[in-house]
Specification:
CATH topology of the largest domain: Rossmann fold
Structural class: alpha/beta
Radius of gyration: 21 Å
Strand order of the largest sheet: 1-6-5-2-3-4
CATH class of the largest domain: Alpha Beta
Number of domains: 2
CATH architecture of the largest domain: 3-Layer(aba) Sandwich
Largest sheet: 6 strands, mixed
Helix content: 40-55%
CATH superfamily of the largest domain: HUPs
Number of strands: 8
Distance between the termini: 51 Å
Order of helices and strands: HEHEHEHHEHHHHEHEHHHEEHHHH
């Protein structure tokens, strides 16, 4: 594979690279490319966590990149998720969560057998080098700089926040160096952590990794204020990204066909609106990258069936009101149902089914 082909493949489903020049340099020098993405173990896996990130991993695998998934049990513990019970978090990490990520990779056609899974507790155990690097990272940071980066944990500095959460940003930065990766992958919401890593990397660890940021897909709910201020679109988009804390506005990888149809049927999807439309967003960042097309079935009285081979044509027809919201919703729902079949089958029986049921019990407490 020539350098330009490798660069295009790696960046195909990304929204941002810090920096393209650094990535090209690694490729041109034929540096072995090592990737990682870390996940908090905070509940059931939805499309953003499982499918969108897996699409990036699939392309990285095609480009010959060594891929690692980091199961961040310590970060989950610091962030008070799953009741803040470290033992429970660890069991869910190597149980349901690992199985869910493997199923997600299968849904997009990636090879989960070639993924290296690393649990935070295992990486840190008896690892003096890691903790030395952690201190080196901390020595390069001011308290104000760490406080500014807390949004990566979904937190803000306010009275009553515990001191432990301040460890989250430097620990996330240190993970990258301890794993020895040169491609740090996450959603655009991880930008602050990766900028922090690149700021301190040279002094704390002798290098800085390239940051790869994938798109954050929208939840299906209506914005609190509509129409939205287009000048603040990026900020508003991040605040309305898909979230497991709003289960009615997101699709989980193992949702039933009936649940998927019901959720998308209620989705915010204004006629002719293309700038802020969750259903179009899912079509662009999930359906087309996986299927390469979208089939729209319509009753004869509303016109013939449509077959879109690229997103631009779909978007144009929707903006010109040649494609109606209900038809778009139905088509996206049917495609998603088909795409997620491997995950539904995986969690429909045996040990994975038991893992999911136990997690649901834990989340309901």
């Amino acid at each position: 594979m020539v350098n330009e082909e490798k660069f295009k493949l790696i960046t195909q489903n990304l929204e941002e690279i810090l920096t393209p020049e650094d990535l090209r340099s690694l490729i041109e020098k034929k540096t072995p490319l090592k990737h990682y993405i870390g996940y908090e173990i905070s509940g059931k896996i939805h499309l953003g966590t499982g499918i969108v990130t897996s699409l990036v991993v699939k392309n990285l695998q095609k480009a010959g990149v060594e891929c690692t998934i980091f199961l961040a049990d310590w970060h989950t513990w610091l962030n008070h998720k799953l009741g803040g019970d470290k033992e429970v978090i660890g069991k869910v990490a190597v149980g349901y969560f690992k199985e869910g990520l493997k199923a997600s990779l299968k849904c997009v056609g990636a090879n989960s057998d070639k993924i290296k899974f690393v649990l935070g507790s295992e990486l840190y155990h008896n690892n003096d080098k890691h903790w030395e690097t952690f201190v080196r990272v901390c020595k390069e940071l001011s308290l104000a700089r760490v406080q500014k980066s807390l949004s990566i944990a979904g937190r803000e500095m306010k009275e009553g926040i515990d001191f432990a959460i301040l460890l989250y940003p430097p620990l996330q930065v240190t993970d990258i160096f301890t794993l020895g990766v040169n491609l740090a992958h996450g959603g655009t919401d991880q930008r602050k952590a990766h900028v922090l890593m690149r700021e301190v990397g040279e002094k704390a660890a002798g290098y800085k990794a390239v940051a790869l940021h994938n798109h954050l897909i929208l939840g299906l709910g209506k914005p609190p204020v509509w129409p939205i201020d287009k000048e603040n679109l990026r900020e508003i988009w991040t605040s309305l990204k898909m979230s497991k804390s709003k289960p009615e506005t997101c699709v989980f990888i193992h949702d039933s066909p009936e649940s998927i149809k019901a959720k998308i049927a209620k989705a915010f999807c204004p006629p002719k609106e293309i700038d802020f439309n969750p259903v179009l967003d899912w079509a662009k960042h999930i359906i087309f990258p996986i299927r390469g097309k979208l089939e729209v079935k319509r009753e004869s009285k509303y016109g013939n069936d449509l077959s879109y081979q690229d997103f631009a044509s779909l978007e144009k027809d929707y903006q010109e009101d040649k494609l109606f919201a209900q038809d778009l919703k139905n088509a996206v729902a049917e495609s998603l149902i088909d795409i997620l079949k491997p995950a539904r089958d995986h969690f429909g029986k045996g040990k994975p089914k038991e893992m999911l049921e136990n997690l649901e019990k834990l989340l309901s407490v």
